[in-house]
Specification:
The chain is α+β, with helices and mostly antiparallel strands. It has eight helices and eight strands.
């Protein structure tokens, strides 16, 4: 082994230190009184029997997806897999480098308690979402911060953002988003205030966002509701 090769740390060792977390989020204690009120509001909704409640509702600030489990996720690495690049561009419309900077911004908030407000519940045919307002300087990669409260097993996390875009009548709605049925319930005044802690989640192990029940592979929300009987 050459001297230069021996001096370089292995990629696996570097990966252990510098890999991106699966996600950054705001997490709330289950016994937090406002969380009980939020759950009560959720129980008052007429939800279809195929909905599954989210076990630990949280606000996602950044979701790395496949980038978190890839060696390309090294913060100081220059190589990026095409799969990760494509996924980030589709989900957030940003480059991998921009996502890394966003993750570093979230790191500055790690462990801090923050207060968020919930002013709306938005229900569609495949999910129930709470619209969230964050502290002004808290970084969030989604233009529509939210908490997914319940969803059909047929849709993924991107459904929530599409539902809120439709409810907010965004000017750049896609044809699929325009066809999304949604029911908006305004809360307050006063609005519901929640206090939670910013922290990362490393890897998929132990992170099960949906309570056990009937499960089917998640599909794109654009096609998930087609052909379903109501």
């Amino acid at each position: 082994v050459s001297g230069s090769a021996a001096a370089e740390p292995s990629l696996d060792k570097v990966s252990e230190r510098r890999q991106l977390p699966l996600l950054w989020g705001i997490f709330f204690e289950a016994d937090h009184l406002p969380m009980h009120r939020l759950r009560h509001l959720q129980d008052l909704q007429a939800l279809p029997d195929y909905f599954r409640k989210v076990k630990d509702p949280h606000v996602t600030l950044a979701y790395a997806g496949s980038l978190a489990s890839s060696r390309a996720s090294l913060l100081d690495g220059a190589v990026v897999t095409g799969v990760a690049e494509t996924a980030l561009a589709k989900r957030h419309g940003i480059s991998v480098e921009a996502f890394r900077r966003h993750s570093e911004d979230c790191q500055l908030w790690s462990g801090r308690e923050v207060e968020v407000s919930i002013s709306q519940l938005v229900q569609g045919t495949d999910g129930l979402v709470a619209a969230v307002t964050l502290p002004e300087d808290l970084p969030c990669i989604d233009k529509h911060p939210h908490m997914m409260l319940a969803r059909s097993p047929q849709v993924g996390a991107d459904y929530a953002a599409a539902l809120l875009r439709t409810a907010g009548k965004s000017e750049d709605l896609t044809d699929a988003e325009r066809r999304l049925p949604c029911l908006v319930q305004n809360l307050g005044p006063p609005v519901l205030m929640l206090r939670g802690v910013v922290r990362p989640v490393w890897g998929h192990g132990g992170f099960h966002p949906v309570l056990p029940g009937r499960s089917r592979p998640a599909r794109s929300w654009q096609t998930a509701g087609r052909g379903r009987k109501r």
